[in-house]
Amino acid sequence: METVNYSVKDHIARIEMNRPERHNALDFQLLDDIDAAFTEAEKDDDVYVIVLSGAGRSFCSGYERNGSYYITPPDEGWNTNNALTRLRGIENRYMRIWNCPKPTIAQIHGFCLAGGCYLQLVCDISVAAEDAVLGHMPPETFGRGALNGVTSMPLWQVLLGPKKARYLLMTGRRLNGMEAEQFGLVSVAVPADQLESEVQSIAGEMMAPGGPGFLTMKETLNTDLEMMGVGAMFRVHGYMNALTRMDQGR
């Protein structure tokens, strides 16, 4: 794994995104390495909890504009088939974290924007530094094209409620960690110098009961949301996001 630092200690797998010079922007390699790291953590019976974090000054600044599965068109340009195929692959990346059988914690500092915010949304628990910066660009930030319009992540309205989600998505307003906690965008915010110790403490509390309870709990909680239509929301957001790529105008 070239762009992820992976380690296991005391039953906690730590997946640290490691492109600090780009604020851990999600390029082709980093997306592949995150997948590989989660695969490794899932199959390791010694791992009880997974922590996702970022090296350097930020958690993750979003998708890499200079090259990523999400943004970079195929050589032949976007068409209906390859756009839908590409977005289905993006959806699968979100869902493999969302459906991970082991508890997941996002440890957030610095910038956590757009695609970076998507990553923390699909984790079970998100702990942010109070001075972290979270949010999403408004629809017209990059003009017409693949970055314009529908977000590929449907959980904003599910977790924040329509009013708060639309306020953030339609304005591009950014929140600090404390505001993000108040909005329900993260689970809890703590002073930056306490971030790592708080994540360690939460992970320890999650491991204390032991047994297979977390798997059955996650299956039940996720199934509750499936019955509320979350799976279909992922599909339609990916579909509508793919269609915007037909009108790049660039």
Low-confidence stretches: none
CATH topology: 2-enoyl-CoA Hydratase, Chain A, domain 1
**Overall average pLDDT:** 90
CATH class: Alpha Beta
Q: Give the beta-strand count.
A: 9
Helix and strand composition category: alpha/beta
The shape, in one word, is globular
Helix percentage: 40-55%
Count of spatially separate domains: 1
Percent of sequence in beta strands: 15-25%
CATH superfamily, by name, is 2-enoyl-CoA Hydratase, Chain A, domain 1
Rg on CA atoms, Å: 17 Å
The CATH architecture can be named as Alpha-Beta Complex
Helix tally?
A: 9
The ordered string of helix (H) and strand (E) elements is EEHEHEEHEEHHEHEHHH
**Largest sheet, described in full?**
6 strands, mixed
| Spatial ordering of strands, largest sheet | 1-2-3-4-6-9
Distance between the termini: 34 Å
